[in-house]
Write a structure and sequence with these properties.
four-stranded antiparallel beta sheet; elongated
Length: 291
């Protein structure tokens, strides 16, 4: 039965190899293990969200068979890594169009400390991928890091990201900073800053920060035309937090406060920095984190 399965699967190899070689990610010229599938380690929220947003298909699969590729089929593999043609059985479809019960994909994995190839057979994995046109059983990973060791916690977090993403109130993609202004209060140390964000679909998003002497500084995010004073900062490791922490620039652009008096512009910049500090670093490891 196994020989029959492999004989059926291997004709897909040429198409899968072409897809893999033409993928959007760069071929690493040196061992960059962050760029290879993190087979085993946990993954941070930002990296998982990046993969989830790029994927059209997310599945849980158990490896049925894995073939090591060499020669022309392994062009561009980083030193210390091995490329595999993998056949797996689908345990669960998390999101995406229907896929067959058995699927195949290519992946580069780092070798172990003794430079031996990873052992894949019978491993339970989460795959974030796209389907190949006309070949629903052939998956193309959205990144080299898009094959992940399955765990209940990982699957739960991924489902949470996708649930937020597909929900009616999903926050928009933040693309930059619009107008920002600060209004001083009637007593020293009192004031309010509002910062309006640019979004990919032009939906309104704004940051509001209030200072009162003797009280903790309060800030919030509003998703709507009306600034909601009762709104709260986003909880870490939520989609709104990710949209802000991973997209906001490290400083307030000069043109956003060009119409402000110098002292008000300076306070707006200080308050913006406060918001960034409260959000904390994005934590992305597969790209640059500006903060």
């Amino acid at each position: 039965m196994m020989m029959k399965t492999r004989a059926k699967a291997l004709p897909l190899l040429a198409m899968a190899t072409i897809l893999f070689a033409g993928a959007a990610w760069a071929q690493p010229s040196a061992p960059d293990r962050r760029a290879l599938a993190p087979f085993g380690p946990t993954i941070g929220y930002a990296d998982l969200a990046d993969l989830a947003l790029a994927a059209r298909v997310a599945v849980v699969a158990t490896v049925h068979d894995a073939t090591r590729l060499k020669g022309p089929d392994a062009v561009g593999v980083a030193p210390g890594a091995t490329r595999f043609y993998v056949v797996g059985d689908v345990d669960a479809l998390i999101v995406g169009p229907g896929v067959p019960a058995r699927i195949s994909w290519l992946v580069d994995l780092p070798n172990d400390a003794a430079n031996r190839p990873a052992k894949l057979k019978k491993q339970k994995l989460v795959l974030l991928a796209r389907t190949s046109p006309g070949e629903p059983g052939t998956l193309q990973l959205v990144a080299r890091s898009a094959e992940l060791s399955w765990s209940p916690a990982l699957e739960s977090q991924l489902r949470g990201i996708l649930r937020e993403l597909n929900g009616a109130g999903a926050p928009p993609v933040v693309t930059g900073i619009g107008h920002a202004f600060h209004v001083a209060g009637s007593i020293p140390g009192e004031g309010e800053t509002q910062i309006f964000l640019k979004t990919a679909d032009s939906r309104p998003v704004s940051l509001s920060l209030q200072r009162h002497p003797g009280e903790d500084t309060r800030w919030s995010v509003s998703l709507g035309e009306i600034v909601d004073d009762a709104a709260a900062p986003p909880a870490r490791d939520t989609l709104l937090w990710y949209r802000l922490a991973c997209a906001l620039p490290p400083v307030l652009p000069d043109d956003s406060v060009a119409d402000q008096a110098p002292e008000d512009a300076a306070q707006a910049r200080t308050d913006y920095r406060f918001v960034l500090d409260q959000l904390g670093a994005c934590g992305r490891t597969t790209g640059k984190d500006a903060r």
